[in-house]
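Renewal narrative, Specific Aim 1. Our central claim is that a sequence can be written position by position from structural information alone. The example that follows is taken directly from our test logs and has not been curated for this report. It begins with the structure tokens describing the chain, in the order in which they were read.
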């Protein structure tokens, strides 16, 4: 499956958040959504990215955005990560990779000569009509908010 591009209809999704509550794209209809995919809770790059989004959260709200993070970690892991860093947005647990596959972010990776499947760090900005407005494939984890908000 190819990655959704600017102008495409955002693929629908359904996944539990850190509280086990099922979240869907449909609940964001009429609102802007930052849907960011990240590899793993409480790792240096993922923490920097989440904390940058947290630190600028009021700017996102003022601009009309909701934020959802997506990784393959469990809801319990997300709860711990969200609490530890006081993250004001929800985190989706995609342990079966369905959301990742819909957005083509579950990819083959290579580290130290070892091939494995993992999350591609990509952010999708979805507009009020449910269309992809921006795809950020080269995420600057420490300055991600500036990449989105300008």
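The sequence written for that structure reads:
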């Amino acid at each position: 499956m190819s990655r959704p591009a600017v102008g495409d209809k955002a693929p629908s999704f359904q996944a539990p958040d850190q509280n086990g509550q099922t979240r869907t794209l449909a609940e964001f209809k009429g609102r802007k959504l930052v849907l960011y995919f990240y590899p793993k809770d409480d790792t240096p790059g993922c923490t920097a990215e989440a904390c940058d989004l947290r630190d600028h959260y009021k700017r996102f709200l003022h601009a009309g955005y909701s934020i959802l993070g997506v990784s393959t970690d469990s809801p319990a892991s997300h709860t711990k990560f969200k609490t530890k860093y006081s993250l004001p947005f929800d985190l989706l647990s995609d342990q079966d990779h369905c959301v990742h596959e819909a957005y083509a972010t579950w990819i083959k990776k290579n580290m130290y000569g070892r091939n494995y499947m993992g999350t591609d760090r990509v952010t999708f900005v979805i507009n009020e009509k449910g269309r992809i407005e921006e795809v950020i494939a080269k995420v600057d984890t420490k300055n991600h908010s500036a990449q989105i908000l300008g």
